[in-house]
Amino acid sequence: MKTPLTGILPVAPTPFHADGSIDPEGMCRVLDCMIDQGVDAICILANYSEQFLLSDEERDILTRVSLEHVAGRVPVIVTVSHFATGIVTARARQAEALGAAMLMMMPPYHGVGLVPSEEAIFEHFAAVSEAVSIPIMVQDAPLSGCTLSVPLLARMAKEIENVSYFKMEMPFAADKLAALIEAGGAHVLGPFDGEEAATLLADLDAGCTGTMTSALQPEKIRPIVTEYRAGNLDAALAQWKLCLPLINHENRQCGLRAAKTVMMEGGVIGSDHVRHPLKPLAPRTKARLMSLARELDLIALRWGK
C-alpha cells in the first residue's frame, strides 16, 4: 500500500449454514454487502469471524474464496493469529501469496498461564515480518490476557519492518493510543481502535486514524472518522451520538452475533448460526437489535431484499 489505511476496516462475519457447515457463497455475499457499505478495507478470520471455531481446512477455503472474490476492490486484511510462531508464519505467507494487503495478529497466548515473555512476543512478530512484505497490524485485546506495554509496542514499530498498524482494544484505549503515538512517532502508521467504536470519539481525540468494527453499521460509523479527520468535530460528535445506542447494544449484549443476525434478516446470508458453545441471541436481545437497526435503516438490513 502506497498510502496508510485510514477510516473503517470492519471484520467480516463467517456465515454458516443452519447445520453448522461453512457457507462460501454466503461469504461472497457478505463481502459484497460490506463493499456496498463503503468500507475502506475488510478484515477476515478475526475473532468476530469466529476464527477460534474454524478448522485449518475451513480457514484455507475462506481465505481463498474471500481474496478471489474481492479481487482488489478493497484491501483485505487476513488475521493469522496462533500461539505457534511457525504456524503464524505459514499462514502469513499463504495470505500474502493469495493477495492479502495486510495481516492482523494477536500476541501468542494460550490461557493466562501460558503467555510468553516480552522478548518472545517481539521475536514472534519479527519472524512473521521477515517472512512477508506486507504490513502487520498488532491486535492488543483483552481476549489474549497478554499485556503489551507501550515500550514493547513502540520498539516493535521501530525495529520490526512491517509492524506499523495497531488495533487498541484494551481498557483506557485512548491513553494507550496517545502514549504509543508519542513513543512510536512516524513508525506508527495506523493507530486504530476496535470495540465496535464504543470509545471512538476519545480514541480520535488521542490520535487514532481509523476503527475496526463489525460489519453491522460501517456506513454509519465511517462518517464519524471522516468528519473528525476533516476538522468537523461537531458533525463527528453528532454522528457518534446517532450510532451510540446500537454500538452499545452490540458491544455489551450481542457481540459477534449482531452482524450475522441483521445480515440474515436483510437477506445477505441464509442463516445466523453460531457454532457451539456459542448460543443464539435471546429473543429480547434480538428484538432490541432489530429495533435499533431499523431506526438507522442499515444497509445490511435491506441489502438482499
TrEMBL record:
GN (gene name): araD
Family matches, as InterPro entries: Aldolase_TIM, DapA-like
EC number in record: 4.2.1.43
A Pfam cross-reference name: DHDPS
Record has Lyase as a keyword: yes
Residues binding pyruvate, per UniProt: M212
Family: Belongs to the DapA family.
Key words, A-Z: Lyase
MF term (GO), any: 4-hydroxy-tetrahydrodipicolinate synthase activity
Cellular component terms (Gene Ontology): cytosol
Protein name, as recorded: L-2-keto-3-deoxyarabonate dehydratase
